[in-house]
Amino acid sequence: MKDSELPFDRSCHVLYSKPCKKQIQAKIALHYPPQEREAAWEKVQRQYADFLSDWRTDLGGRKNFHNGAAGTYDCIVLMAYYAACKDVTSLAEIEEMEEALILPPFRKLSKFVDCNKPFFKKLMHKAFLTAKKKCDRWGDYEMHVAPFDKDAPIYYEFTACPAAEFARQHGLLEVMPALCNPDFAGMELLHARLVRTTTCANGCKCDYTICGDQDPYLQEHPEYRDEAGYRRNR
């Protein structure tokens, strides 16, 4: 089925990104014989359209930066792939796909950004304040950023997350670790570390404590994977 033929309301929703489509089709090619691949992909497409049929319509469409590659709608189509092809895929594969989508910008920044240095720490905090303004504009992710303290890690949190809300509404919370964990990998590329104890999917907030990868703070908060598959910290 052509993407243009998918039956969903394009006045308020957007199509999954091309990089995400490429990721899913590549995995389908690994799991299905050639004669079954088109049908498997169409099954994912139809599941995506079905998911959007009862989904909220106030997320800003293409104007909202959260709806681009690796954003809310890519999370939804990855969940559609998981639901449609659950017999062949895995949470590890979904996490691998989300990392492939989310990490390219971080890899570019990794060539010169080092969050152990005060300049980049301050710059990162400013970037989070800018992101908060965009969240406030769209009312999708409820974001709160703590004031900057040069002697402490950066801290911000989300108290609402559309991807977690969607997963909860559609009985797919088991997929959320695969969509949340790549946040850790992104920070690692910037010589930083994310310290997180909970997310909007398994708690009341998604907390982001960010420090340089040489910060002694990390010794007090070792990382582990919990029984659901979340990367988190003590």
What would you report as the Rg, rounded to the nearest angstrom? 18 Å
Cross-sheet strand order for the largest sheet? 1-2-4-3
**The biggest beta sheet, please?**
4 strands, antiparallel
Estimate what percentage of residues fall within beta strands: 5-15%
SS element count, helices: 9
Shape verdict: globular
Uncertain runs = none
Summarize, please.
This protein is an alpha+beta fold.
Keywords:
two-stranded antiparallel sheet; 6 strands; alpha+beta; 9 helices
What does this entry look like structurally?
There is one protein chain. With 234 residues, this protein is an alpha+beta fold. The protein contains 9 helices and 6 strands, in the order ααααααββαααββββ. It has helices spanning 18-31, 34-53, 72-84, 91-102, 104-109, 118-138, 162-169, 176-180, 182-188, and strands at 142-145, 154-160, 192-195, 206-212, 223-225, 231-233. It has a 4-stranded antiparallel sheet. It has a two-stranded antiparallel ribbon with strand order 5-6. Helix 1 runs antiparallel to helix 4 (91-102). The longest helix is centred in the middle third of the chain and has 21 residues, at 118-138. It is globular and about 55 Å long.
Question: Would you spell out the secondary-structure blueprint of this structure?
Answer:
Layout: H1 18-31, H2 34-53, H3 72-84, H4 91-102, H5 104-109, H6 118-138, E1 142-145, E2 154-160, H7 162-169, H8 176-180, H9 182-188, E3 192-195, E4 206-212, E5 223-225, E6 231-233
Antiparallel strand pairs: 1-2, 2-4, 3-4, 5-6
Helix pairs in contact: 1-2, 1-4, 2-3, 3-4, 3-7, 4-9
